[in-house]
Design the sequence.
């Protein structure tokens, strides 16, 4: 008989883990909400596709992820491939993204100062990102103080809502290419666009947005919704939850709740630190907007509350309703860090470009994990504490990692290898 695994949470992490383990194990997924998908969940108010959190486009640099993913989906028939056309809304104008490649669009004294600082940084010798103590030091010493103050600081402070010197560098590892000063100057002179960024090109479902992805991943799996996990009891090597016994549990929900969910025989030494991990929420408003050709608009200035507009109506034509199409309008999501009221969001729309008209609103309590200097150490210790009980944490909020969908998939593959190797 196959060993029995309970997977808690039906986001990308839980569904990927269940999908890759189902040949070897008897896998059961339990989801708190009425719908599967977690952060990538979409619905269609007024027949306009709404990514309730983010915009969720897919790409990966990992061959194993790509191979697995494209085995599940038909790249040509089910997805569109798009090139990112992102801009920065700065002083009422649209500046290219990433900003360091579009310095020529800024005022001359600013450009002179930025170039001067970049040359000085180059002379002093470029350091590897991981050698910086924190995120603020990395940004200041990599892009120079002028670009830091103009763009990186206000934008990142809006998102992270925290002093950037408390944000660990570890979350950046492997996520951003290291800017090369020769390349920045060359890109500005010959006006070469971005090339190496993870989402410079991306794939997006022709229909259904990221909900299409999770619906497909869930096919053939046992998934029960409206099942919030509240307790796990462990006695004599038996794990019991929802009145059933399991051999193993893969937990993809918020790790901060886990110490209170598990009743184990010995305490975990960093329990308080786990409970005190920091996160930010995201509020968003789905809008109709004037037609444009953008994918994202970043809004660094602190005079705006919103930090980004995602032009989801441009990702796939099917995301817009017939009413919008007939009136030559498109759709987008305006995003705010933290929890905002409807009134605050509506007030902001009048300040932003594109004649935005609200359709629907959402508040997500937890969307961005904040890693500080101790986070990885504590999570590693927690994994070592949980594994002998047969409990494994996986995913953005369970491992407290700044995962994109592809990284969450990669982590699920690693967990599969760990479990299957242990078995054999
Ligand atoms: C604003 C934003 C934009 C993003 N854009 C992109 C993008 O464009 N491309 C990309 O690749 N990635 C993007 N990401 C990252 C992506 O959303 C995550 O990597 C991915 O969704 C994480 O999935 P997960 O399964 O780990 O977590 P989640 O999606 O949070 O899944 C956890 C699941 O557990 C359930 N759960 C919670 N508590 C319980 C409980 N007690 N019992 C049972 N179930 C429970 C939740 O309801 C949820 O369904 C973005 C993220 C954000 C916040």
Sequence:
């Amino acid at each position: 008989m196959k060993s029995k695994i309970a997977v808690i949470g039906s986001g990308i992490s839980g569904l990927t883990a269940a999908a890759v383990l189902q040949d070897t194990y008897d896998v059961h997924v339990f989801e708190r909400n009425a719908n599967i998908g977690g952060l990538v969940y979409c619905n269609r108010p007024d027949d306009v596709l709404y990514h309730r959190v983010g915009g969720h486009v897919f790409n990966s640099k990992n061959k194993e992820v790509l191979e697995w993913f494209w085995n599940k989906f038909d790249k040509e028939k089910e997805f569109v491939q798009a090139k990112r056309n992102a801009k920065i809304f700065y002083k009422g104008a649209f500046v290219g993204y990433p900003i360091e490649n579009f310095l020529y669009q800024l005022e001359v004294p600013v450009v002179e100062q930025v170039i001067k600082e970049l040359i000085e940084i180059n002379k002093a010798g470029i350091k590897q990102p991981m050698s910086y103590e924190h995120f603020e030091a990395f940004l200041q010493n990599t892009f120079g103080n002028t670009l830091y103050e103009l763009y990186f600081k206000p934008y990142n402070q809006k998102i992270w809502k925290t002093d950037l010197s408390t944000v660990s560098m570890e979350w950046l590892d492997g996520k951003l290419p290291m800017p090369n000063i020769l390349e920045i100057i060359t890109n500005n002179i010959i006006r070469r666009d971005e090339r190496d960024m993870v989402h410079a090109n991306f794939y997006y479902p022709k229909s259904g947005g990221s909900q299409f992805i999770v619906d497909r991943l869930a096919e053939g799996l046992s998934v029960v919704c409206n099942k919030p996990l509240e307790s796990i009891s462990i006695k004599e090597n038996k794990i019991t939850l929802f009145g059933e016994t399991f051999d193993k549990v893969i937990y993809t929900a918020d790790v901060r709740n886990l110490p209170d969910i598990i009743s184990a025989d010995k305490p975990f030494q960093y329990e308080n630190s786990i409970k005190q991990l920091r996160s930010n929420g995201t509020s968003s408003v789905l809008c109709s907007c004037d037609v444009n050709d953008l994918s994202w608009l970043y809004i660094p200035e602190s005079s705006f509350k919103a930090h980004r507009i995602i032009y989801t109506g441009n990702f796939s034509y099917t995301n817009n309703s017939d009413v919008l199409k007939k009136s030559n309008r498109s759709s987008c999501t305006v995003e705010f860090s933290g929890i905002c009221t409807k009134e605050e969001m509506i007030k902001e729309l009048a300040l932003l470009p594109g004649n935005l008209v609200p359709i629907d609103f959402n508040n997500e309590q937890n969307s961005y994990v904040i890693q500080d200097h101790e986070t990885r150490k504590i999570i590693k210790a927690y994994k070592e504490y949980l594994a002998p009980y047969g409990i494994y944490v996986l995913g953005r909020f369970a491992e407290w990692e700044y995962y994109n969908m592809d990284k969450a998939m990669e982590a699920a593959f690693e967990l599969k290898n760990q479990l299957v190797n242990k078995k054999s």
User: Anything to note?
Assistant: The chain has a mean pLDDT of 93. The CA atoms of residues 42 and 51 lie 5 Å apart.
